[in-house]
Design goal:
The protein is built from 5 helices and 11 strands; from the N terminus they run αβββββββββαββααα. With 260 residues, it is α/β, with parallel strands linked by helices. A 7-stranded mixed beta sheet has the order 1-2-3-5-7-8-10, covered by helices on one side. It has a two-stranded parallel ribbon with strand order 4-6. β1 and β2 form a beta hairpin.
Length: 260
């Protein structure tokens, strides 16, 4: 084999080896970047990232941004911060069930409105969540098996989200201003009770009581003012009566002009 061909063959071989090493290093780097217990896969043609039972205490940061299905169920995540899933524009399904989530910041699901079609928040520790958290989301949402406080806020939330079929019966009142609602399904309760209307009536009554209080204070002040002036006038008249007649007429004229 001519020397030139040998040099060319050696160069090609070295280039292929170098590319293989770079690819292997890239794969190893990607694999070690994932949190312990998390791994990527492909299910039904969709890119999936599973972190089930991984003892996570927060949403992982190194989730591939082309993920379609994300499983973070059965962990110890206590809350969802703002923009928790901002870098996952292709996410279709998000499972956050069986965690310890007690708080969800407004904007936690920002960036998911267009594509997300399933959101599971069942079996967490949610007591009260603002409807703004789910604004613009088109996903089917599961909110069952949480210790909900049944009030106007929950009523507005239920009217905002699109619940997973059959999951509404699992939204049960764990606490309520009215003891008889505890332990009942929320949809059963609001069939007879409008929490937001009750709140509005309470607010209106409070405003009326406040206005009446101010009105009573103004009237009391006016009564006091009139009585005080009457008392001053009476004392002044008694004083005038005690003066000699000539001086009294002069004082009376001065008093009349002052009153006028």
């Amino acid at each position: 084999m001519p020397a030139a061909e040998r040099v060319l063959l050696r160069s090609v071989t070295m280039w292929l080896l170098l590319q293989s090493l770079l690819l292997l290093a890239s794969c190893l780097r990607s694999a070690t970047a994932f949190p312990k217990g998390c791994y990527p896969s492909e299910e039904e043609g969709l890119k999936t990232f599973r972190c089930s039972n991984a003892r996570l205490t927060e949403v992982p940061r190194d989730i591939p941004n082309d993920t379609n299905k994300l499983y973070l169920d059965s962990n110890r995540i206590p809350f969802l911060p703002r923009d928790a899933f901002r870098d996952l524009p292709l996410l279709l399904e998000l499972d956050l069930s069986h965690n310890a989530i007690a708080s969800v910041e407004s904007g936690a699901f920002r960036g998911l409105a267009e594509h997300l079609r399933s959101l599971d928040l069942s079996s967490n520790r949610l007591v009260s969540v603002s409807k703004d958290v789910f604004s613009n989301l088109k996903a089917k949402v599961n909110l069952s098996d949480n210790p909900w406080l049944c009030d106007c806020r929950l009523q507005e939330l239920i009217r905002t989200v699109d619940l997973v079929a059959g999951s509404s019966g699992g939204i049960v009142c764990d606490s309520s201003a009215q003891e008889e609602h505890v332990g009942k399904a929320f949809l059963q309760v609001i069939a007879d009770t409008d929490f937001c209307n009750v709140y509005k009536k309470t607010t209106d009554i409070a405003m009326l009581v406040t206005m009446f209080g101010w009105f009573a204070m103004v009237i009391s002040y006016l009564v006091y003012y009139v009585r005080q002036n009457q008392e001053d006038a009476r004392r002044h008249l008694e004083y005038l009566k005690s003066l000699p007649s000539k001086q009294r007429r002069s004082e009376e004229s001065s008093t009349i002009s002052t009153v006028v």
